[in-house]
Design a protein that fits this description.
Layout lengths: L1 H25 L8 E4 L10 H16 L7 E6 L6 E7 L5 H18 L6 E4 L3 E6 L4
GO molecular function, one term: D-mannose binding
GO biological process, one term: defense response to bacterium
InterPro entries: Cell2Cell_Antifungal, GNK2, GNK2_sf
Length: about 140
Amino acid sequence: MGNRFRFYVLPFAVIFLIFCSAFRAAVATSTIVLSATCDPRGMIPQGSPFWGHVGFVLEQLVENTPYTPNYSFKTRVGGGDSPAFGEAYCRPFCSPTSCQACLRQLSSDIWRICNSALGARVEYPECWMHYECYSF
């Protein structure tokens, strides 16, 4: 009886643990806005080179920050009269996976939170992201 019980229960227990850990990872990123500072000068004009440069900056922040020392990364894209500058940071308790998940979500949400402002800095519990049209 004992061996049959282990034979049937053990696989279900393993599946349950896998499910729980996957569920926890899926909901680990908190999207509570702790702070948001949006440039009051206005919105990025659609189709401007700066619009595209900010998109690339945010992408670089998502892809690189989780794999840098101290989870901190700065970048610049573009030149001339429309460069974009960005910086991102994740909390030290984050894993690279949760850092990247937080930044990926934030890179999408930052447009909505700051209404496509010329500059923005938004902080979630696990990460923050900042972009501007000037070096900082």
